[in-house]
């Protein structure tokens, strides 16, 4: 059987998938805060600058492939293998592009730098107090402590819109990544260490947040909803959380931090949160505190042992 | 015992008692086990029935011939490529099934059919296998075969060391395969994320398998690197000046300089982790002064140069294939050499881009961002040079050329996404997402394309017949369709925010694209069948497809100036090199006759079983260390030392083939070659075997 020549290019059909592009589920193309918007801006900038060189090169290669086929009987020059002008171009153009991209990379990193994102200054009033949130990851849950409000929330983050939120992050055991694609890029959360992040939500809504770094068996279930609400709704929520009957001391935290797979997407609010838990977690980790994973905890998710360790 | 272990341990069987705590009875594993056992039994049965054991022992297991060692490297690589593909199939099928909280689960999983414990091992094994025991052996194998031929050497500088490198790589692959059935494998990602690899979070033997497999294999790779560098520096034929070395050899040189300088870093890193797990030190734990960031730094100080270690030979292959099928010299030879070395140099200053998100300051990130972009310059130059090689060419699209062209397009798209990742502002939103996965698979596929191209390009040189073109093209197109179908959805999922290493997919909007990836994997599976058929058909028609010395008719470098298949001594007499594209120069001057002016004695290394024995002892050592069976580990180490000492006293390691015998063997080769159509012996004298040809350009015309 002879396969029709032209139909060979059917192998390229999957390119049509590009036609499915829309922004609704494309979190990275649909930012809801200034940081993620800036990140998208630099992505578009980077791709556009690269395309200036990539599109002509691709077309050139395709043109050469068609033009200089043996069958096409085009001009053939079997000795041509050097040209000073072309040398200058082939080195010069990439150097130029890299210089431009390098400049924007430098500017961009300062705008969205997790420790001091300059882009947020343009979106906040000079004397407005930012909301402070301490993020602690355990295996495999999220704990968000609001130190000034003395409340904490497990596996759910609630923030007011148009307010700068400053995070301090640490982990009890292994590394996680704090990531809310539509609001802010990633920062690692590491045991015994403290990283920072800041964000601002411009639109109310519920955004997905999750760990972006593998942290073991319960990692895939390790997500939290980020609810960006208005200032008054936020105050209501704080008041509600402060009424919660569940309290949290460091001893309670140690129970909370035992390996737990959050299969059921369980969220809990804590009131009367003991101050300084964040610092205690870092200190404990540095002293060698571990929350060991039982041997092969997640090998059978229907087993007794697993159910003991799941939400 | 210096550390407390979960589970049993006893002095005779070590931790093997863990196996009695039946972990999980998964049909997937039983299928893999049956497949391996059945294939193994068939092979043993065939070897016994066909009385092949003696042949295998003499010709393959104890050989020091660089071509046979190369072929074995490639075979190991292909087998592990197949294993790694199966892992990929499991990863993607699990993800396509386990979508949404209501998706069903089976075999002990809450969703899909792989519990996290098993799934994490699968992707760890996939990554580790594909990079360290699939891509690396295939590339090292091709370098092994081609480099000595391209520079006119008889063998590698250290043939015994070469065989040892191979067998240590085999041990690495064997340990990964053993982990599949005896115990478990690491579930901490192929990079061994600290402190997830530490004992409290990985209490089983999986991480130990991962450590020892990589540790032993990387010693083999380092030996191979020493060997190739020494070969290129010291074993070049007369006239093979630095300015005439073929570009593939140059890139092999650059690549092995990277390997030689980076693999020791990996060795030290893994040794420190070993101390943590075995002796209870705290190098990478958080508590008591350890630092997990140190692990990440050290790992990537090896890991990023390793990326260029595998990509540079691929660039070299393209630089050989494209000129051959363009019937033109490579455009910008000097530039290509400089670019290769520049890539090797820059490879050392980019490692931090793997963890922009670890909280480094903006200026540190900016430095590594720009350093990473610098790699794009020489790489861009290479793309331009291949394009200009095609300019005013007379191109034929044989299978190797198809793969090479595929490579160029993959390099262009992979370069674009690489430049995106190198910008920290962008990296913050795509780091650890499947966008990154798509990017580096894009780059690795470039390597795979180049390697498949290289395999079909140099196959006739090694075996004396061509691979079937028709099935080769089917293979190419199905493989390409699979590539597009898997990786375009994967890039797209990256923009949708999907993270890598997910056992459970909480966001149902990702499902259609995950299903598309499954279809792509199916296309890959079909392409594997095409490849197997291609091999079978080619083997069946081998008499019809016999080729002469110059299999493609337009080949350019020195390896084509020997018989196909190449005799074990490579060249009847050491060739004298006259030009950069030596074979093209000889063809131009009508000097394609392979009959030299006179024959001389040939000095060759003797076969030896020592590398194989050392390999077996290393396997025993690795296995013993994984299961903490101290007595067996001690015995194997002592055994290794004794064998090495014994070998160092062995003075009878080489022999001489007398000129008369060479002449006899050569006569047979020439007679057989004369029967092949289109390979009539050329008029004119010998092309500079013992003496330079009279047509050789004088010094001032050489142009280098």
From TrEMBL, chain B:
Pfam family, one: COX1
Location(s) in or outside the cell: Cell membrane
Gene Ontology biological process terms in this record: aerobic respiration; electron transport coupled proton transport; respiratory electron transport chain
Residue ranges that the Swiss-Prot or TrEMBL entry lists as coiled coil: none
Keyword hit for Cytoplasm: no
Keyword Cytoplasm set for record: no
Segments of this protein annotated with the region Disordered: 680-704
Positions of the Cytochrome oxidase subunit I profile domain: 51-578
MF terms in GO: cytochrome bo3 ubiquinol oxidase activity; cytochrome-c oxidase activity; heme binding; metal ion binding
Keywords: Cell membrane, Copper, Electron transport, Heme, Iron, Membrane, Metal-binding, Respiratory chain, Transmembrane, Transmembrane helix, Transport
Stretch forming the signal peptide: none
One of the record's GO cellular component terms: plasma membrane
Membrane topology classification: Multi-pass membrane protein
InterPro entries for this protein: Cyt_c_oxase-like_su1_dom (IPR023616), Cyt_c_oxase-like_su1_sf (IPR036927), Cyt_C_Oxase_1 (IPR000883), Cyt_c_Oxase_su1_BS (IPR023615)
Gene3D superfamilies: Cytochrome c oxidase-like, subunit I domain
Composition bias type Low complexity, residue spans: 680-697
Cross-referenced PANTHER family: CYTOCHROME BO(3) UBIQUINOL OXIDASE SUBUNIT 1, CYTOCHROME C OXIDASE SUBUNIT 1
Protein family membership: Belongs to the heme-copper respiratory oxidase family.
Name of the featured protein: Cytochrome o ubiquinol oxidase subunit I
